[in-house]
Amino acid sequence: MDASASSAADPPALRLRTDHGPVPLGFYREGGAIFLVARERTAQWPVDVLRHGSAELITPEGAAGGPATLIVEPDERTRVLERFRAKYGDERFRRWYDHPARVVRIDLERSSTPDASVQYDRWIESEFDNVADDYDRHITGNRMNRLLRDRSLRQLRSVFAGRRRILEVGCGSGMETLPLLQEGKEVVAVDISSRMLAVVRAKAAAAGVSERLTTIKARAAALVDEPEISGTGGFDGGYSTYGALNCEPRLGPVADGFSRHLRAGAPLLLGVYNRWCLFEVLGYTATFQFGRAVGRRASPVRVGSSRFCVDVYAYAPRDVIRAFGPGFRIVGWEGVPVLLPPSDLTSYAEKYARHFDRLAAWDAVVGRWWPFRGLGDHFLMTLVRREDGPHQAG
């Protein structure tokens, strides 16, 4: 029971209409809004509701529905959860609603829902707002996520040596931003999540490097027309690792944005969720899970088929080369990781924790070889801004 189908002794539940049939849920009603709680991040119903931006309900009073939003403000979440505690009591609250993954609001008095592309942006923003305060623990608490960041930081330090002004797209909670700031770089950090940007600013302030940080709220595809970025002049380098590119259904606008804002000769590092992952293909094939073995071929890869909290688009190296080739020269790429498992399968890596450093060193070497460089969970691709590419930065 995710958000509580009710027994006869419980307060009445509503039913949420989904493509998979009705889902009984506990709820709290306040004025023209109904609030729902999903305790488990793997629950499918909140993803369906937030993806579409609306919900159809059958309440004890009859049919109802309206636009759906994810509540991300801590004070509002706490207030709603206290209402659930008062309605269902301490024991049921602990069983069903304590420490929830999502709190969803359905506005019954509103009937309009946004355009699909607008709704997708809102969904991405709200999901990353929702996890911003706990995002560092998600990274540092997972051995494979730490490996990804170690590899990208090593590359960033190498390609940005002697360069000062850096454009970062999809900064998240600043796992790479802060080290670069502390090493003297000036970083313009862009993210679709305002709460992620707030986390980065707080970290920079605590580290005493705020004067070198500028934050801009925007999605990756909006770079080309983002006036705040255009007003900062050309950049000496840029990067986007492990997220922002894979939230975009088309890479062309992202490539145009980087091409416009980076100076000629400036390096660009991209960390991309790969379409083909050797570990998954071999592992899932060996256990006869053939659909999962090739699951990244879907476009997009839906929540539940990937480890992410939103739908994502997986790209092969050739997709990135095709999109970025007009403005950038491709230097090379490597798979990260190839021999080791993805972060959602990190339990396999933990079995060999005593030998992990040696395995990681081998993985770093093999990840540079053909064909393995194109078969990692992610790949890190290094590019250089062409002298004669489109949208030359000033």
Topology (elements, then pairings):
Layout: E1 14-16, E2 23-25, E3 28-30, E4 33-38, H1 44-52, E5 54-59, E6 62-70, H2 74-96, E7 102-107, H3 116-131, H4 135-140, H5 143-159, E8 165-169, H6 177-182, E9 186-191, H7 194-207, E10 213-217, H8 227-230, E11 237-241, H9 252-261, E12 267-273, H10 278-286, H11 290-293, H12 317-324, E13 328-336, H13 346-350, H14 356-366, E14 378-385
CATH topology of the largest domain: Rossmann fold
Radius of gyration: 22 Å
The level-1 CATH class of the largest domain: Alpha Beta
| Tally of separate helices | 14
- Strand count, sense and closure of the main sheet? 7 strands, antiparallel
Mean of residue pLDDT values: 91
Description:
By secondary structure, the chain is α/β, with parallel strands linked by helices. The protein folds into two domains: 14-113, Pnp Oxidase, Chain A (Roll), CATH 2.30.110; 135-385, Rossmann fold (3-Layer(aba) Sandwich). Helices cover 36% and strands 21% of the residues. The chain has 14 helices and 14 strands. It has helices at residues 44-52, 74-96, 116-131, 135-140, 143-159, 177-182, 194-207, 227-230, 252-261, 278-286, 290-293, 317-324, 346-350, 356-366; strands at 14-16, 23-25, 28-30, 33-38, 54-59, 62-70, 102-107, 165-169, 186-191, 213-217, 237-241, 267-273, 328-336, 378-385. Strands 2-1-5-6-7-4-3 form a seven-stranded antiparallel β-sheet. It has a seven-stranded mixed β-sheet with strand order 10-9-8-11-12-14-13, with helices on both faces. Strand 8 (165-169), helix 6 and strand 9 (186-191) form a beta-alpha-beta unit. The longest helix is centred in the first third of the chain and has 23 residues, at 74-96. The chain starts with 13 loop residues before the first strand and ends in a 9-residue tail after the last strand. The relative contact order is 0.10.
